[in-house]
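Sequence in, structure out. Go.
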Amino acid sequence: MSKRTLYHHFAGKDEVVAAYLAAFAEDGTYAPQAILGRTDLAPRARLLEVFAALSEGGRPLRGDPYVNAAVEAADPEDRVHRLAAEHKRRFTDRLAALARAAGARDPEGVARRLALLYDGAAAQVVVQDSPEPAAEAQSMAAAILREALDRP
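Output:
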């Protein structure tokens, strides 16, 4: 699609990016959403498997579209930034629900740590064009979950 055609359908770049993010939000096959929604995996396994989604796809690795969009639209009042932030709130809520289902103490705290780890890995996957940060983050997430799930 040419730029001219694109801007015939959208008023500006923000509208294009907002539509792009909305397409991910509505796509049940978008890897992180699909993994978190899998019923054939235990909650703990879903919390770990979501990190593998960061290294799926061809090269160059693109990380997380919401993190990428928020970086490009740095003003917190920007529509795209707000959409990305809202998605990240919902993502963290989903992680908390899974942590709760897995029996974690302080599921909200676990979710915040996992979300931070996920977003950091998403950035590093892009910068390094390597799946290694996702694998390292997954190992770190396993340690967080072991600590949260082990009973004192």
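Check: Residues 28-149 form a domain with the Tetracycline Repressor; domain 2 fold (CATH 1.10.357.10). DSSP finds eight helices and no strands in the chain.
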